[in-house]
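Narrative summary of target 7.
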Amino acid sequence: MGSGSSEVKVLGKWASPFSNRVELALKLKGVTYEYSEEDLANKSHDLLKYNPVHKKVPVLVHNGNPLAESLLIVEYIDETWNNNPLLPQHPYERALARFWAKTLDDKILPAIWNACWSDEKGREKATAEAMEALEILQEALREKRFFGGESIGLVDIAANFIGYWVEILQEIAGLKLLTLEKFPKLYKWSQEFVNHPVINEGLPPRDQLFAFFKASAKK
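Modeled conformation, tokenized:
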């Protein structure tokens, strides 16, 4: 299991796909951890102590050492616990995985989020940008089962929002973004992803997530 048998704590928010990335990575590695749910309107002493710069979740605390930013945390987990590798061994493939994980956060997720929450005036443009983003992601998948090949890797974890949250948000928004007809490969990937036994166990309950975002949409 590598050098990581030790004290692990996650400060997170149950409805956040970014917090969920950290939990999924730990579960895939079989790492036992303590979870602390954060109220971001009333930030805990631990959150302010361990992430004084951004004061955001997720935060991983390993043997008292804190680390913020979900993708950095997932890479740290992969390097600390050697079983079930999340990044490829070849340097080029590793760099490519990091590129797609960053592209998800910088370009693809914001486009889809904007489409789901935009007002009627901006919705057409936002939806077009979201569809373009999903097309880019589908091309990256090619013919593979997962972005990581035959097993779940960094990019799959980074795309958890696409695999699980999007289906809920598009239903609330009355949109059809990720569908079998429009993006067959990506849709099939999303089904494989959420039905993976470890992932399925590690995702927040759908009905609770739906209610949470439905309530947010009414505000």
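The beta strands are 8-12, 34-37, 59-62, 65-68.
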